[in-house]
Amino acid sequence: MFCSSGLNDYSEYRMKANEIIQYMESMQNEEQRRILMGFFKTAPGQYGYGDEFLGLKVPQTREVVKAVAKDFPLEEVPALLMCRWHEVRLCGLLILVWNFERLATKRLAIDDEAIRRRDEILTLYLEYAEQANNWDLVDLSAPKILGHWLMLPSALGDKDEKLQVLDGLAFSQNLWKQRMSVVCTWKTSQMGDPSWCLRYAEIHLKHPHDLMHKAVGWMLREMGKQVSFDLLRDFLRQHAYEMPRTMLRYAIEKMSDEERAKWLIMDSPSFL
User: Are 89 and 54 in contact (CB under 8 A)?
Assistant: First the structure.
């Protein structure tokens, strides 16, 4: 179990969600809490309004995950995901990530039991997707759970069914689900498949929110870097003139100064 000085020997003990919450609450840091409340835009009218923080840094949360993830009961994760505290929800998401990755190794990719358990984690992740209600919660979980699942065998369906899952997120009315649908393509691009990124970048091309402009541009940049800059250039030839400037700037960030300048003046199809 946890002790006041940190993490002790947990190897013979299965933690419960309420114990993790109590331990994390015991580490509350008021000064850091105020910093995080500002950084994650929690004031009225801002995208993170209502989010509550303990004031823990990510490495502190990862230390908790490292201590408990191996033996933590999956049925206890929803209690973490439904917690009022941002850092506790992150802990729950990272426990899911840890377990999914453990079941997604090359050796277990086509193992029937591993497939079943990955699908169980994915289903739980989607059920509580709205609890990943800030950009860091999405970005630290969606690629490694949802994105990796897209590239692995699943008893839930083939690529058509997987497209339906991602379309359901992309066309929802929830900003964070929408962000999941595009940020998860970081993993698919890393694994050599650009089609997911290109599809959801196009779907979100005219999204009104700056957070989505950054996400789409970032994923396009990663797709170009991981798969093909020529594919990125093809996408830009079709869409650079209509992309929000922030999205375009993120997408071309790894190009030369000369090439970036060229794309930034393409404000109409006549430039193509």
Answer: no
Tokens of 151: 């590239």
pLDDT of 179 higher than 70 = yes
Residue 257 CB-density burial (10 A; 0-12 exposed, 13-18 middle, 19+ buried): exposed
* pTM reported for the whole predicted model: 0.92
- Hey, what are 205's tokens? 């091309």
CA 147 to chain centre: 9
CB 183 within 8 A of CB 141: no
Give the mean model confidence (pLDDT) for residues 29-52. Answer: 94
**Cα-only R_g, the chain:** 20
Question: Could you identify the residue written with the tokens 């003139």?
Answer: 241
Query: How far is Cα of residue 119 from the mean position of the Cα atoms in its chain?
Result: 17
Q: Would you say residue 228 has pLDDT above 80?
A: yes
Q: How far apart are CA 54 and CA 31, in angstroms?
A: 10
Q: For residues 212 and 204, give the distance between their C-alpha atoms in angstroms, rounded to a whole number.
A: 7
First to last CA, the chain: 63
Residue 13 confidence (pLDDT) = 52
pLDDT at 267 over 80: no
User: What is the DSSP-derived secondary structure letter of residue 3?
Assistant: E
CA 262 – CA 272 distance, rounded (Å) = 10
